[in-house]
Fold:
Amino acid sequence: MELQAIHDTLKAAGVVGLLGCDEPRPANKKEKDPGRAGMPFLLVDPAEIVPLLTACRDESRLQFDLLIDLTASDPAADGDDLWVLIQLLSLKYRHRLAIKAHLPKSALSIASATAVYRAANWHERECSEMFGITFEGHPDPRKILLPDDWKGFPLRKDYEFPTEYHGISCE
Amino acid sequence: MSNSTSNTPEKDHKSSYRAEERRTLSSGEEEFFFDVKTSDMEVNMGPQHPATHGVMRVLIRCDGELVTGSQVHLGYLHRCAEKIGENVEWLQYLPYTDRYDYLAAMNNNLGYSMAVEALMPGLEIPRRAVLLRTINVELNRIASHLVAYGTYGLDIGAITPFLYAFREREWIQALFEKICGARLTYSYIRIGGVFNDAPPGWLKEVGHFCDVFEEKWKEYRDLLALNHIFIKRTAHVGVIPKDMAIDFGLTGPMLRGSGVDFDLRRDMPYMAYGEAYEAGAFKVPVGSGEKGELGDSWDRFYVRVEEMMESIKLVRWCLGVIEDGPIIGEIPKVIKVPAGEAYVGIENPRGELGHYVHSDGGKVAVRCRVRGPSFTNIAVVEELMPGTLLADSVAIIGSTDIVIGETDR
Structure:
């Protein structure tokens, strides 16, 4: 199913928090638009993420049963938002859905998806330590790849590389 | 040969147990180890334990021989691949992809190249490049499954199959060395195609390898997979039911071992797979619970064994249709990728390898996310461990076939 059709199906099912589709478009030199290549994303409201994912999983015409990936992105150091990116896959209908939620840097908090997909557990732990996003209601919010005492959030664009770690110089 | 007399206690997938709940074993005997109360003991498996296939630590809490809880600690091999991806040019990142799943570097190269190519709409990959990619990726899948096959035997205590498996793997590595000069970190599949054409006689040697491997494969199957002792150690152990596999987002042989018939190569085809499947070149092996229950360690293992044979058929099909021609599309020396975002997932030997790439039109990526299959697949171990015997924990971890380079990236 194409993204627009998925969007319409969700809308018909009464899901709130849909903010439209981010479709690729060709470059337009006249209007100095560089265009956007690649794949379409469904834009959603981060406050509604759990009911939305539940609908994606349970709606009989979508059946996104696998949560493939959950991550974030910091597109610009001076930007206001982080993006939370979720990839879903349906085994039955063989279609994918990419979800994008803009999260303001001033309030980096989103509800945890672990109650909907248990696969989200480790992805959220990684996302949290790398970007400093709090996942509300996460059952086990420890760090996963980094040491427990690591300072800062390495995948943020404004991250400053440490000069020493436990007396070991990294310069 | 019946497996109903296995000595393994029946799994209930509970994260805790109560000592007064004496269970009856599938053999009909009452469980005995609850009679003796011992204090809980915490065992550190790893970071330097051969069964963890790298540097991973599994903290196991056990009551005598019975595992009552486990916790996986990752990060010992974290090399900041995603941060590096935001700091080097598009093509410069390619050698880093070799290093996450170092047993299937060709597949990693392909996953990354396809993600970047998804942002370059005008780029056409020549047919010879597509077929060379498919041949090499499938050969690498065989090599990777051979390691999975050999080391799983090693984990459980069978040393000989490992030596057999590495004999054929050595040949595959020699083939890769001839085509790209490297034995483990190939960087052979580039953005736009492949970087080197097959040297004279190479395709013929691949055909010869297929002939030989087909015969050897039967030996492998009989030597380990159908070995009575091996079945006793793996059947009924670490059972992942279908719904649990889906809930945990497992992919690849882990998912198919639980009876879910899904393979990206067939169901969302890329490269030459769609065409090959239509021509009947390969099937998708799925676990059936033949020797134990559906989704046990043996099922996952046997899916890998069968996949090796399917890969051989795919390689043969490619050898039949490959023709001369260009091997790389029109790619400038310094690649500038148009602004955009793409997520591309491909079927690696261990499951879905996903790359999310975000370009702002420059020489460097804004975000380069790697979704490694091992990372998701190992998460299920914490769930499987409670209620099993300590000796089976090795069998369970081995059956997930993880590569630590990929879980930690």
Summary: Chain A has a mean pLDDT of 87.
